[in-house]
Amino acid sequence: MNMREYISETDVRSFLTNTPQITFEVTDKCNLSCEYCGYGKFYSNYSKRGNKRMSFKQIKPFIDYLVQLWETPLNKSIKNNIYISFYGGEPLLNMDFIRTMIEYTENLNSPFRSFTYSMTTNAILLNKYMDYLVEKKIHLLLSIDGNEYNTSYRIDHKGNPVFNQIVNNIELLEQKYPSFFESNVEFNAVLHNRNSVSEILDFFKREYNKIPSIGELNTSGICEDMRSEFEKTYNNKVESLYSSENYTEIEKELFLNSPTYHSATMFLLKNSPFSFLNYNELMYGRPDDSEVVPTGTCLPFTKRIFITVNGNILPCERIGHQFSLGKISDEKIDLDFAYIANKYNHYYNRVKSSCKKCHNKRGCYQCIFNLADIDSKQKPLCYGYMDEADFEKYKDNMFRFFKNRPESYAKIMNEVTIK
């Protein structure tokens, strides 16, 4: 196979320089033992959990390295905002790191970057730290799966349910800091066999007047001996949505959190002649098929950087830790841009023949790291592949969607595409 170069060493360095988000797994320790946890019994594609805490001393050289990159010609922004995100485990179990990181970045006085802070938390320790979180205007994503039964997979290490504890802390935050709650708090719910899309939406609208994001269980890295139990626990978002009596209204309320609106938005972004990804497309037209990078995989570091508690550097938190692109250890950074470019180019070349034949190559959002055979000798199989008949059926479904919901076209074009 002739090896084609889709991205170069310089590209990867530029992607890192201009990354919009850095996510830290500040600890792999958690005060809960959720039965479907992505680091739990169902999965095998993550580093061993060891109740570790990230130290700022470990990470400081990486921040300083980024500051140096921002001062090079690769920097494309005068004052770009970067999200510093805290992830776990349960990040509130390592507040020392969070406080030090915020203090350090606040005092950088970089002419090239400003910072916004965010956190995903299970809210168990929210009552203890909410004053600081509000003071620093940290954007919070609180995890709860709906009502008491819906949330019953969320348990502590003794097997006790934690729903009431979570709800009490959320209510305390809302009562004490109502403006912050309105502007800085969002919710995330995991879909499984003890809840449904409609139940989740009803709960959050009724209790908090919020529209949550709803995520399915990760289907990658499943232990073979746990597959049967996993499949019993798993709930498909589309099937759950369409089983609702008022699914059309639910679709509208969820908007981009609805799989149908998300699919319709991606279809318009990739296929509408009135949508342009950047000014180059507007001025010079879209690239031809030969320039389309295989699969819908994010180019490395263009969306975010994810750094694990063990110092592994990944392109995001949603892929297996075996795909680490670098390492931070002993206060040193092991990041080889040529290696990263070659790794991606190798994967792209493994799937390019299939992608070339796919009629939805421009609209693909299949992540290459979630292809089961990407590192095996077998040819990777993409379940999103569309032949001509599949693509025509897909287009018909999209056109039918816009015909039945004509207001959705304007909503997507005005609220998503233009912005």
Q: What is the element string, with H for helices and E for strands?
A: HEHEHEHEHHEHEHHHHHEEEEHHH
Question: Which strand-content bin applies to the residues?
Answer: 5-15%
Shape: globular
Number of strands: 10
Distance between the termini: 41 Å
Describe the protein in words:
The protein is globular, with a radius of gyration of 22 Å. Strands 6-5-4-3-2-1-7-8-9-10 form a 10-stranded mixed sheet. The chain has about 425 residues and is an alpha/beta fold. Helix 3 links the parallel strand 2 and strand 3. The longest helix is centred in the C-terminal third of the chain and has 21 residues, at about 335-355. Helix content is about 40%, strand content about 10%.
Helix and strand layout, with pairings?
Blueprint: H1 9-17, E1 21-25, H2 56-70, E2 80-87, H3 95-106, E3 113-121, H4 126-135, E4 139-143, H5 163-176, H6 178-184, E5 185-190, H7 197-208, E6 213-215, H8 227-233, H9 237-242, H10 247-254, H11 259-271, H12 279-284, E7 305-307, E8 312-314, E9 326-329, E10 332-334, H13 337-357, H14 388-404, H15 406-417
Parallel strand pairs: 1-2, 1-7, 2-3, 3-4, 4-5, 5-6
Antiparallel strand pairs: 7-8, 8-9, 9-10
